[in-house]
Amino acid sequence: MMLEVRDLTVYYDNIRALKGVSFSVEEGEIMTLIGANGAGKTTTLITLSGLKKAQSGSIRFLGKEITKTTPQSRVALGISQSPEGRRVFPGLTVLENLEMGAYLRKDDFAPDMEKVFRYFPRLRERKKQSAGTLSGGEQQMLAMGRALMSRPKLMLLDEPSMGLSPLLVAEIFEIIRRLNESGTTILLVEQNAALALKLCHRAAVMETGRIVLAGTGEELSRSPAVQKAYLGG
Ligand SMILES: Nc1ncnc2c1ncn2[C@@H]1O[C@H](COP(=O)(O)OP(=O)(O)O)[C@@H](O)[C@H]1O
Ligand SMILES: [Mg+2]
Predict the structure, then answer these.
(1) What is the chain's mean pLDDT, rounded?
(2) Would the pLDDT of 233 be above 90?
């Protein structure tokens, strides 16, 4: 297993947002977490990237215990997050935003910049433009491109389809598929359950801080409970 999450408990003050979450991600796969607003999906991702501390439980990545390590050291190990709401630096240019994604690297990252521009040609055309003036879809591409600049083994994607037109969503999902085919393991959090279940290899359903169902994307798509709650019948 590339990532093993065991019995993770996470609090915001006295609110228990994760109540013993366990799951794993295999090298090479797309694993997806679906669930309603407030289920704990974002909390799971930010605990994996180290921005939020776990109260108890453990996170192992490539055989190493990382539960108490810094966010920077997790990036250095190969975990990179594209945050919910595509938090780009609005006052910086596209190029500068991408450079921020490579801030831990001391080697030449020009080839990675080139790779990002091949995945997202629109960013190349806009590389001198400030990020705050990009459209929502372009900002999503920039957030993903920035996450790619650290050359991740595991990418954490938090609701990449949020607020985008169906055409752009299809484009972003196609890029996620290509990234995965070129060897990047993906943990995808999505409200668009129908698309996410089609794209992923395995999935889990979160409800109020717990994983209540897990299986292959196909199994979950066929589950009556999932169809009723997340696929509109
Ligand atoms: N900064 C915060 N302070 C207090 N409670 C929070 C905070 N962020 C999230 N929560 C709570 O934690 C729970 C899980 O939230 P979240 O992980 O954002 O869910 P999701 O991403 O699935 O919508 C919710 O009950 C939410 O209200
Ligand atoms: Mg969220």
Answers:
(1) 96
(2) no
Q: Is the CB of 42 under 6 A from ligand 1?
A: yes
Q: Residue 60: its pLDDT value, please?
A: 98
The fold for domain 1-76+154-159+185-233 equals: Rossmann fold (3.40.50)
**Collapsing DSSP states into helix, strand and coil, what is residue 219?**
helix
**Any idea which residue has 């949020």 for tokens?**
162
Q: Which two tokens stand for residue 22?
A: 């366990």
pLDDT tens digit string along 93-105?
A: 999 999 999 988 8
Quote the distance between the C-alpha of residue 46 and its chain's center.
10
Residue 117 is predicted with a pLDDT of 97
Residue from 43, 81, 82, 189 to probe ligand 1 pocket by mutation (most atoms less than 8 Å from CB): 43
Residue of 74, 126, 77 lying closest to 98 (CA atoms): 126
Q: Is the CB of 43 under 6 A from ligand 1?
A: yes
Domain residue ranges in the chain? 1-76+154-159+185-233, 79-151
Nearest CA to ligand 1 atom 11: 17
